Amino acid sequence: MESETVVLSFVFQAINCSHIINRAAVTRALFTSYSIASPQRLTSSTKRSSAFRSPSTMSRSTDWIPGLWLDTFNDLLYDDNELDYGDQWTLNFNYSQTDQVTKEERKKGWKVYCCRAFGHFKCASCSKTWPSARVVVLFRYRLRSDRGTVIMRPFGQACRSCKNNEFELPGFSDKEVEQALLRLFSKIRKNIYGEDDDDDGGSSASSNKVWTKPHEKTLCQACIMGICTQDDD
């Protein structure tokens, strides 16, 4: 009986030793599994951390990702209370809208805000990539009763090499998306709620010195439509 007890004790010690040796490996495995799991709704500060961003957001900044705009829009609204007036706001997308607002639309409360942002493009034909500090983003917004609506359209650019008149949609960094939306919220506070706002918190990241190749209007979808110059930086 004593010999069996000694053997069992030795076995448990060996298992415990093995556990200690492999603890670091197990910890790394658990952390890796957590990092690649489908992201849940996190707090604003956590979601914007690079450690918890989705792989597409981190490694493919040339991709147009509507979900990134939707997530950031909701984070700024409900976590940071950027429009804390008790109304419900939603973000939608329309890839054919223009900056023109008819008299009838104005009567219904529609307003337009057009801003410039820094983004990246990738040609679907030749895979060439390029940055641009003059990516145009158009927002149409209104408030009816207690429901606010924002309709967004990003404008594309054509590849200088291919010149096939195909406009690629831009990709944006997390920071640039946040800054563009902060500028939009500043306009909403001023034009919808009558609040004086200095707009400092929403200055675009592209307002810093970002040197890119000269902007070619013939390759810019917004310029061709006569919209590109309507940036009130």
Automatic annotation (TrEMBL):
Primary site of residence: membrane
Localization in the cell: Membrane
Tell me the GO molecular function terms: olfactory receptor binding; zinc ion binding
Q: Name one Pfam family in it.
A: Zn_ribbon_3CxxC
* Residue intervals of the 3CxxC-type domain: 116-226
Organism for this UniProt entry = Seriola lalandi dorsalis
Report the InterPro entries cross-referenced here. Answer: R-trans_p (IPR026096), ZAR1/RTP1-5-like_Znf-3CxxC (IPR027377)
A single GO cellular-component term from the record reads: membrane
Q: An example of a Gene Ontology BP annotation on this entry?
A: protein insertion into membrane
Q: What is this protein called?
A: Receptor-transporting protein 4-like
Provide the topology term for how it sits in the membrane: Single-pass membrane protein
Which key words tag this protein in UniProt?
A: Membrane, Metal-binding, Transmembrane, Transmembrane helix, Zinc, Zinc-finger
